[in-house]
Amino acid sequence: MPHVLRQNMLLPVPPSVVLHDPRTHIRHLPPAYSPAQTPLSRERDFAPTVRYHLDSPRKPKFRPCKVIFVGDCSVGKTAIVNRFCFDRFQSNYKATIGVDFELENFTVLGHNYSLEMWDTAGQERFKCIAGAYYRNASVVVVTYDMTKRDTLESARKWLSSALNYNVNQKPLVFLVGTKADLLSKEEFMRMERLAGVAAAELQAEYWSVSARSGFKITELFQRIAGLAFETAVKKEMENLKDTKIEETTQPPVKSQSFDLRNFFSSRFTPQKSGCSC
Ligand SMILES: Nc1nc2c(ncn2[C@@H]2O[C@H](COP(=O)(O)OP(=O)(O)OP(=O)(O)O)[C@@H](O)[C@H]2O)c(=O)[nH]1
């Protein structure tokens, strides 16, 4: 039985109490970093049609959502994944070799939903290996270092490379500035302005974060999970609608006329009887 710590005493939790991890438990659509500027949903909550669809007794199962992290080497891709998944930060740099993988389970509107996080290597020599993992991404997180402007300029190159592998997928795109803790207030605001322009060009939703301090890390991942989940539900609704349309446009099975007289005449030879009718 799980326990909770109350005033230095370990008390057993009654079985009816379910403890939710507030980091991964989503009941409303998490807001964008700048709601007025996002090209993605500006709504304050999940669409009513999505909630209605999920209210049905049928419990749909959702495939894990593939999220890929791309960007120059050392911009902080591994650091943001590790901060969210393990709440840890390492200041020594260890280059990712090829790709790293983490899975995080969420509960969104009461449904299990997982993010598969593919943290790809930024070093040029691993690009071929990392590229092999870009396919079938539902979300692309393009990461740049807020202290290095050239890493923002590389963002376009990283995104187009990721989109080339996902032509039919139409992934949600996020542009994420890392290491916000290293900038002064003025530098931070200047960089955000530049990045805001780049994000608009890339049709990406913009976020500034810091893996060191944890600034906006949870909010970013919740937003990714919430939006990806809503997109998955809408896709499922579309698929169901298409199936229904297909069913109604199928030619109806021709009704067969059934002549009782033929039926009886093939089985019974009329008997001569004395009956007059
Ligand atoms: N101050 C500060 N340093 C950070 C932050 N995020 C990452 N770093 C440091 O930046 C360096 C690179 O971080 P990584 O997360 O390994 O970078 P990466 O993008 O995964 O690098 P590759 O694996 O080469 O693609 C490490 O030394 C981190 O400690 C941050 O938010 N603040």
Question: What's the main sheet like?
Answer: 7 strands, mixed
CATH superfamily of the domain at 65-238: P-loop containing nucleotide triphosphate hydrolases
Strand content: 15-25%
Count of β-strands? 9
> Which structural category fits the helices and strands?
alpha/beta
Bound molecules: guanosine-5'-triphosphate
Under CATH at level 1, the class of the domain at 65-238 stands as Alpha Beta
Whole-number radius of gyration?
Answer: 28 Å
What would the CATH topology of the domain at 65-238 be?
A: Rossmann fold
The SSE string, one letter per element, is: EEEHEHEEHEHHEHEHH
Low-pLDDT regions: 266-277
Please state the oligomeric state of the protein chains shown.
Answer: single chain
Q: What is the correct CATH architecture of the domain at 65-238?
A: 3-Layer(aba) Sandwich
Estimate the mean pLDDT confidence: 86
Strand order within the widest beta sheet: 3-5-6-4-7-8-9
- Helicity level, as a percent range? 25-40%
CA(first)-CA(last) distance: 85 Å
